Amino acid sequence: MSVEIKGVSKRYGKVVALDEIKLSIEKGEFFVILGPSGSGKTTLLRVLAGLETVDRGEIILDGRDVTRVPASRREVAMVFQNYALYPHKTVMENLTMPVESEMSREEARELAESIARKLNIAELLNRYPNELSGGQQQRVALARALMKRPKLFLMDEPLSNLDAIQRISARKLIKDIQRDNSITTVYVTHDQVEAMALADRVGIMDSGRLIQVGTPEEVYNNVANDFVASFFGNPPMSLLSGEFLGIKGRIGIRPEDVVIGEGELRGRVSEVEFWGDRYLVYLEINGSEMRAFHGSRLRVGEQVRFTVRRYSGPWDDGK
Ligand SMILES: Nc1ncnc2c1ncn2[C@@H]1O[C@H](COP(=O)(O)OP(=O)(O)OP(=O)(O)O)[C@@H](O)[C@H]1O
């Protein structure tokens, strides 16, 4: 299903939750909406689902104007942070119910078992929701949405309650099912790694506006402004006054573009984090802080030389 959002705005009292959003999503695309808390991500998803009306603009699904069509008639499936499972049904019943009318009982049970195995909840199929942990409930909710193979998948932080290892396998499963069935997916997160891992394209939101849209690589390598610079990446760019490079205004520097151990610039190591394959080093330069990746552990307090290979900006100091 293709999605077109045409100049959609939505206010709650004085709060502008969505400000003239324009966006086209292709059939089969995995689109991730990334933004800080309160930027309007959930509102955009709810508007697409039909759970929220718009003040202005149109929503077109597969060429059909659904702006005023209720949620139940939009052929979308949603997984929200606050998953709602049927409390008086077992996990198996929760999974098979949505597809009761589409396949035989046996087929539904087989499909449920195969999805449950992949999400590591196969041993929970006979339990009731109140006998599950938060993370287990979230995986059941995800499994239930995956049973249905909808035309449009709307997911709002569906992995927020999972631990780091579960997140990686659930992420892969979502992507596999989405790709195998070419299900158009709009996925909301504030997790950088998740966004970069999953997205065909990503849209960065701030204060109800869509600031930049592109493939993760495009956005990563060509940030549109200082907000995206300070937000996109793991960790994002350091924003600094460009003076130390002889540049007027503020610039953004990725940690991998700082080469420690060569050049004329000097900084003091103020903190070091072990990242497995490398170290994240915090450098202090004339009272500002900058992050850099480095291959070996440095001592806190040590003075080091460094160069900057690449930067973004400059942007006005006054914003
Ligand atoms: N039902 C509501 N009534 C009043 N204000 C609301 C309502 N829903 C959202 N808002 C406001 O609209 C803005 C956007 O909220 P939204 O939930 O879309 O943000 P978000 O990016 O999803 O945030 P988070 O990452 O914290 O979930 C916020 O300022 C929020 O307080």
UniProtKB/TrEMBL annotation:
Name listed for the protein in its UniProt record: ATPase component of ABC-type sugar transporter
MF GO annotations: ABC-type ferric iron transporter activity; ATP binding; ATP hydrolysis activity
Highest classification ranks of the organism: Archaea, Thermoproteota, Thermoprotei, Sulfolobales, Sulfolobaceae
Domain ABC transporter span(s) in chain numbering: 3-232
Gene3D superfamilies: Nucleic acid-binding proteins, P-loop containing nucleotide triphosphate hydrolases
Keywords carried by this UniProt record: ATP-binding, Cell membrane, Membrane, Nucleotide-binding, Sugar transport, Translocase, Transport
CDD domains: ABC_Carb_Solutes_like (cd03259)
GO cellular component: ATP-binding cassette (ABC) transporter complex, substrate-binding subunit-containing
Matches recorded under InterPro entries: AAA+_ATPase, ABC_transporter-like_ATP-bd, ABC_transporter-like_CS, ABC_transpr_FbpC, ABC_transpr_MalK/UgpC-like, Mo/tungstate-bd_C_term_dom, NA-bd_OB-fold, P-loop_NTPase
